[in-house]
Amino acid sequence: MQWLMCPVCRENLGLNERTWGCAQGHRFDLAKQGYVNLHVVQHKHSKQPGDTPEAVDARRAFLSAGFYAPLRQAVEALLAKYQPKTLLDIGCGEGYYTQAMQQHVTDCIGVDIAKSAVQRAAKTNSKVTWVVGTGAVLPVLDQSMEICTSLFSPIPQQEILRVLKQDGLCLVVTPAPQHLYDLREQLFGEVRLHEPEKFVTQLSDDFELIESQVVDAPFVLKQQDIQNLLAMTPYAYKARPEMRQALEQQEQLALTASFQLYLLKKKARAAV
Ligand SMILES: C[S@@+](CC[C@H](N)C(=O)[O-])C[C@H]1O[C@@H](n2cnc3c(N)ncnc32)[C@H](O)[C@@H]1O
Ligand SMILES: [Zn+2]
Question: Domains in the chain, ordered, with CATH?
Answer without folding.
Answer: 35-266 (3.40.50.150)
